[in-house]
Amino acid sequence: MIFHSKAYGSSNAVITIYKGQSVTLHANVQDAASYQWYKDAQPISGATTNSLKVTASGVYTVVAFNQEGCASPTSEAVEVKVIENLVDVGITKRSENRQVRENEPFEYTLDIHNKGPLVATNVIVKDTLPDKLQYLSVNSVSTGSANYDPASRTLTWLVGELDIRASAELTYMASGINHGNITNIASVSSQQQDANLADNVSSDTKNILGLNIPNVFTPNGDGFNDTFTIQDLNKYPENDIVIFNRWGNSVFQEKNYHNEWTGNGLSEGTYFYVLKVKSTADIWEDYHGYITLLRKDR
């Protein structure tokens, strides 16, 4: 007769273990002098004691021998199944699908999943924010808990267990400190070996709009669009603007511009501007482009 120990998920005839684990089978025969273990009906070399440590899948039996060398009947078979200790957890990170400007809050969503074949345990999501992104708050978390560490600029989501074919979601708010593209990366991990590492990391690139600078103004005294007005420039009181004509000569220059230029004394045409503003992060940013001056009849 065979009995077994240290089995994971065992039953009377089948023992299931994870890859890298083992199970010890024991032969319980009175007054036996020696033994011979078999795997899939083939004798196992050197397996002649009353116990056998098994790490491979197969059907195991044992025969006991007495002092005279007489063999006992073959024992009942025990099937050992070795399965991969694998999960397939993945993550998708996405930002809110709308245009936002500097310092305007918007939402990120982190979606995670586990395709199996095992339950994932100690699932952890980490999202380290780049310098141009300001963390605001967690909106919602479907399972587990989340906290943000300002020192490392990392949002950590402690998910815990994630069942087979299960998913979970976290949303949080952030804002862009500077205009331009902001890319950040989130990752997910678990205690188990992952079958597909390709989907354990997900990145999102969000375009943060800067100043809304027009490309035409009409200084004709009708009270509408009479000055070169840059929307939200008042948020950047430290600025410097230079405007050039088509020959590269400066026709207007001012520090701390307040949207008052009318193009006085200049003819209609296209001019080139260079605008520098000091952001809330104390970084000077450059904008440049063309502005067309038109004087329509009143």
Description:
- This protein has strands spanning 2-5, 14-18, 23-27, 34-39, 42-43, 51-54, 58-65, 78-83, 86-87, 89-95, 100-101, 106-114, 120-128, 133-141, 145-149, 154-162, 166-176, 180-189, 193-194, 201-209, 216-217, 239-244, 250-255, 269-278, 284-293.
- The relative contact order is 0.12.
- The protein is rod-shaped, with a radius of gyration of 36 Å.
- Helix content is 0%, strand content 53%.
- It has 298 residues and is an all-beta fold.
- The protein is built from no helices and 25 strands.
Search tags:
mainly beta; Immunoglobulin-like; about 300 residues
What's this model, at a glance?
With 298 residues, this protein is mainly β. The protein has no helices and 25 strands.
Annotate the secondary structure layout:
Layout: E1 2-5, E2 14-18, E3 23-27, E4 34-39, E5 42-43, E6 51-54, E7 58-65, E8 78-83, E9 86-87, E10 89-95, E11 100-101, E12 106-114, E13 120-128, E14 133-141, E15 145-149, E16 154-162, E17 166-176, E18 180-189, E19 193-194, E20 201-209, E21 216-217, E22 239-244, E23 250-255, E24 269-278, E25 284-293
Q: Structural class of the helices, strands and pairings?
A: mainly beta
Kindly report the spatial arrangement of strands forming the biggest sheet. 11-20-18-13-16-15
Assign the CATH architecture of the largest domain. Answer: Sandwich
Radius of gyration: 36 Å
The general outline is rod-shaped
> CATH homologous superfamily of the largest domain, by name?
ntegrin, alpha v. Chain A, domain 4
Number of helices: 0
CATH topology of the largest domain: Immunoglobulin-like
Q: Could you tell me the number of beta strands?
A: 25
Tell me the fraction of residues in β-strands, as a range: over 45%
* Biggest sheet details: 6 strands, mixed
In total, the number of domains comes to: 3
**What is the helical fraction, as a range of percent?**
under 10%
